Amino acid sequence: MKNHTQTILSSYSCSLGVFLYPNENDGPESTMERLCDLLFELSNEDRLKILDELRKENLKLSHISQRLNFTAQETSRNIARLVDAKLVTRTTDGSYEISPYGIQAMRLIPAYQFLSINRNYFYEHSLENLPDKFVSRIGELNGCKPITQLLDVFGNIERVFKEAEEYYLYIGEPLGLSSTLLLVAEALDRGVKARGIEPIDYEWPDEIRESVPKETWLKIAEHKTQGSLRQKYQKKFDITFLMNEKEVATLNFLNPGGEFEYFGFTSTDRKAVEWCKDLFEYYWEKVE
After folding, report:
1. Mean pLDDT, range 67-88, rounded to an integer
2. Residue 230 above 60 pLDDT?
3. Which residue ranges form the domains of the chain, and what is each CATH number?
4. Spatial CB neighbours of 170, under 8 Å, sequence gap ≥ 6
5. Spatial CB neighbours of 284, under 8 Å, sequence gap ≥ 6
6. How far apart are CA 216 and CA 111, in angstroms?
7. Is the N or the C terminus of the chain less surrounded, counting Cβ atoms within 10 Å?
8. Residue 17 has what pLDDT?
9. What are the distances in angstroms from CA 122 to CA 183, 254, 271?
10. Is 70 exceeded by the pLDDT of residue 118?
11. What is the C-alpha to C-alpha distance for residues 248 and 127, in angstroms, rounded to an integer?
């Protein structure tokens, strides 16, 4: 877990330098101490619950205690810590509100949630080579669900092609069975636009080449010529996925051997779809 945590902390250090360098006169010790103080306050479940409630509305101590079923003493102690950490402030009417600093800190929590919920997966899979700006947005994948069955993988792939209305995008080897190519041709025929980044030396297996009708291959080739199917090629991949405008069918990260597996994540959540779309555009612009 150490490398993944360092990767996320590093990306936050770059994109949110105010958290680590709030004052140009602060030295390395004070900036690191301040970061550790922030993480310590956010590591407490009760304080997180209080911050979450205060994001919804300002509350007085008694109301916080009632909502969360905390004792008055527990609530008072935790509120005092949050005020001292500048995550919460007291208003003129005696209620408490989350500060702008507290709001921003809470916005970073989803990244750690995604990492911790899927800790078994990320114990063996790496975010190491992903661009920092996408690692810092990894919390947008909180709506993803793990894929554990091979049948689900192929079912997701087929559904993405069947239900695509605007486009489909992919990074990595073309996934699926011979039936998948028939769905690809059908999607392209109904006006779906497609782009993909494939391994430079990839070749379809003979059994798939032979089982797919010649007309299907010709249709796909025609769409390439017309520009409705565009492909770029590269040697190394940091991530693989297949998606359309509504769904991420498969999202896979590198294992320790630098390889990809079928089992990763899937999602119809808007934020996850946007994250993958933005990442695709990033790589598409980089590949010649």
Report:
1. 96
2. yes
3. 2-121 (1.10.10.10), 143-286 (3.30.870.10)
4. 196, 197, 240, 241, 242, 243
5. 195, 197, 232
6. 42
7. C
8. 43
9. 33, 9, 20
10. yes
11. 18
Q: Is 120 exposed, middle or buried (0-12, 13-18, 19+ CB in 10 A)?
A: exposed
Please state the three-class secondary structure of 107-163 as a single string.
Answer: HHHHHHHHHHHCHHHHCCCECCCCCHHHHCCHHHHCCCEECCCHHHHHHHHHHHHHH
- Measured CA angle at 214 (ends 212, 219), to 5 deg: 100
CB atoms within 10 A of CB 206: 8
Which pLDDT tens digit goes with each residue over 200-219? 988 888 888 888 999 999 99
**Where are the alpha helices (H) located in the chain, listed in sequence order?**
2-15, 17-20, 28-42, 45-56, 61-68, 72-84, 100-117, 119-122, 132-135, 150-163, 178-189, 206-211, 214-226, 270-286
The pLDDT of residue 19: 45
Examine the pLDDT at 183 and tell me if it is beyond 60.
Answer: yes
Pairing of strands 229-234, 239-244: unpaired
For residues 88 and 79, the answer to whether their CB atoms sit within 8 Å is yes
